[in-house]
Amino acid sequence: MMNRGIYVVGALMCMMNCVGSAQPLFVLGDSSVDCGENTLFYPIFHHNLSLLPCNGSDSSLLPHLLAEKMGLPNIPPFYSQNRSMQVFFSGLNYGSAQATIMNPSGQIHQSLNQQLRQVFETMQLLQLQLGEEIADYFINSSIFYLSFGKDDYIDLFLHNSSGVMVKYTGQEFAGILVNQMVHAMRNLYDANVRKMICIGILPLGCTPRVMWEWHNSAGVDDGRVCVEEINELVLEYNTMLDEHIVELNSELPDVQIIFCDVYQGIIKMITNPTYYGFEDAKSACCGIGSFGARIGCLSVEMACEQASAHVWWDLYNPTLTVNSLLADSAWSGQPLYGMCRPFPIQDLLHTSIS
Ligand SMILES: *[C@@H]1O[C@H](CO)[C@@H](O)[C@H](O)[C@H]1NC(C)=O
Ligand SMILES: *[C@@H]1O[C@H](CO)[C@@H](O)[C@H](O)[C@H]1NC(C)=O
Ligand SMILES: *[C@@H]1O[C@H](CO)[C@@H](O)[C@H](O)[C@H]1NC(C)=O
Ligand SMILES: *[C@@H]1O[C@H](CO)[C@@H](O)[C@H](O)[C@H]1NC(C)=O
Ligand SMILES: *[C@@H]1O[C@H](CO)[C@@H](O)[C@H](O)[C@H]1NC(C)=O
Fold first, then answer.
1. pTM of the model as a whole
2. Which of 12, 17, 257, 327 could form a disulfide with 65 if both were Cys (CB 3.0 to 4.6 A apart)?
3. With contact defined as beta carbons under 8 Å apart, do 341 and 261 qualify?
4. For the CA of 46, the nearest atom of ligand 1
5. Residues 61, 32 contacting (CB under 8 angstroms)
6. 289 in a domain, yes or no?
């Protein structure tokens, strides 16, 4: 009873304050949202991975930086949740490094569907604790953040797991992934979610690991900064996702879904690095071998001296400096204008949906 009392008081405070100020943020995704804290499998499979996508700090990724702008404390990971009111009221992070949109064939990493199941568990708990009406209100004023896809391209497509490359063309593969994402957004909508942020895939073809692999297989340094062939695959996904979000926004009553095009944001930094204050747009700050990409970041001591001069932190993840530029742009529309559509994220907080 005591607990329920606390929840109700908290929820009522939220009903008065959530619109316009700190709205809870629920985060789903891969290593673009998780520093490796939220997975049961991670330490075993670290050889080719971004072991430390976060520079030893748990607040350097895009959703962390956005939460800060939203006036929220750090969003705790789902696996650490202790079901206290505090935790629920700022939101939860279900994200897990290496999570894919497709269901994995083995138990080596998480998927979108597994994270969705955890979301629905949380919602059931909220309904039990708060009663249906307050829980509905809490959910429909919360923001859900989805950031997936990179690891589907890395694991399944680039490494041709299960012969996926013979089965699908790039466009078919993008279509399958986007359908899953749309399905997830519809499921969230059916569970009363009304505010969502969906992040596109970064320019994977420009990441140190992909450059390294390209280099190894081509056997020559052709002076490239990006593998266009890979970027084109990612662009098909981003474009299709963007279009579907436009459709969902016009089809579903009262929904507000923002698409953030981090691909275009990072490409601007890579094509004009000095303008944005970078000296190196090609090599990872933390890693070994050419492009810092033969072996990924295993400890922060391996890192270069000035991470902020690099676009890339490790094999597949940008530095805090890049994430900060993305966060500013996603939030306010500056300095990278129009990165989030149809409006910047701060407007999602200030618009009322009822
Ligand atoms: C790392 O990647 C290489 C080539 O992509 C592969 O041969 C190797 O099995 C991978 N190692 C692990 C531990 O996944
Ligand atoms: C639950 O987590 C919150 C936030 O991390 C913390 O402040 C609180 O002390 C924890 N409560 C218990 C009972 O562990
Ligand atoms: C949010 O939920 C509350 C409580 O059920 C409801 O009164 C309100 O109309 C809902 N708003 C939207 C936009 O669905
Ligand atoms: C992908 O895997 C399939 C079956 O394992 C194989 O036949 C095909 O040649 C591979 N494609 C590439 C481009 O490696
Ligand atoms: C890691 O981040 C902290 C602050 O977030 C910064 O002071 C430090 O220089 C960073 N280290 C590296 C190697 O990037």
1. 0.87
2. 327
3. yes
4. 13
5. yes
6. no
